[in-house]
Amino acid sequence: MIAPTLIKPLPTRGELKKQLNDDQIWRILIEQSLGKTLDEYFDNDLVKGVVLTDGLIGTFTSAYEMQTNICFLYHLIGNGTGEWKVPSGGMGALVRELENKAISLGVEIKVNSKVKSINAQPNQVSIELEDGQNYEAKYLLSNVAPQVLAKLQGEAVPQSLEGSQVKINMLLKSLPKFKSGVSASDAFVGTLHINESFTQLERAYQQAKAGSLPDELPLEMYCHSLSDNTILSDELNQQGFHTLTIFALHTPAKLFDSEPEKVKELAKQRALAALNQYLVDPIENHLATDANGQLCIEVKSPIDLENEINLPRGNIFHKDLSMPFKEDDSTVKWGVETNHPRVFLCGAGAIRGGGVSGIPGHNAAMAILELN
């Protein structure tokens, strides 16, 4: 019911509730915390935790706070069924296709062109690059986080939750064996959860909130090459290589502020140790090496994401996710509007943004088309 509204003008809270016509579902998804709902409907601590994880990806919050519900909703409404789709060839393949399509339509793409400032005027928007070049247009569609946009416009920066994830990317020369006897291809083909019972997730949140890296890092693991081997070369596929990604929860940016590299190394050690307790041989024995003999493993903290790709405090959603509707007295139409009528959000920071959906881009385009 929510999915079909995502590329239409924002419905109001009242309109969406009326359309749902189910007070119980509305209550458990929109009005009470996901934690309370899980307490009411589930007894098994592990099942509760696995369900809860969809409300915590990249979101530093307790199960008993409403921000969890919003994250949970966005993970369930994909394609109207909750189905997630992965582009063949990986996200890079998607970007290349978008680039090819844009160029075929006459679009000029400028890279390595960092914006210094944005000046939104009544009749146009002008930008200045750091190299001194200037450009003008009738409208600006911004794919940067709202906090970054505000800085470029010389406005007050909106407050938001900080990012809360550690990503570990590995290239394996072989898949490991599990002590349980389950095959690695079965264990890794979907999502492998470690330290993600409801109790463990809440304990990890409280430890991180108190300023400590959780003793038992909640982890999710994916072996994308098992589902799509086109992300690797034919040569690597023939040799049995695979990718393995670990996503650690409840690792907010503040934990990395004072000693970013030391804490990042500690997070890596705890994550690999958590996986290794289930393996015959440690995962390190299965890592490939590069041309210089270095192990093929990289670790990215929220601080890295801020420094390298300008995600404020490493927030992968740019800012707090929003409910996919507006309040009944709101005058916002598409959820992409900003303080200036010629500047629109087309990235994750828009209402109904986040999740690599393309929805904000569509809605920003629709907002401009309506003006013309």
Automatic annotation (TrEMBL):
Chief location: mitochondrion
- Note the InterPro entries from the entry: Amino_oxidase, FAD/NAD-bd_sf
Return the GO cellular component terms, semicolon-separated.
cytosol; mitochondrial matrix
Give the location in the cell. Answer: Mitochondrion matrix
Q: Which residues form the Amine oxidase domain?
A: 21-161
GO MF term set: oxidoreductase activity
Q: Quaternary structure per UniProt?
A: Interacts with COX5B; this interaction may contribute to localize PYROXD2 to the inner face of the inner mitochondrial membrane.
The name of this protein is Pyridine nucleotide-disulfide oxidoreductase domain-containing protein 2
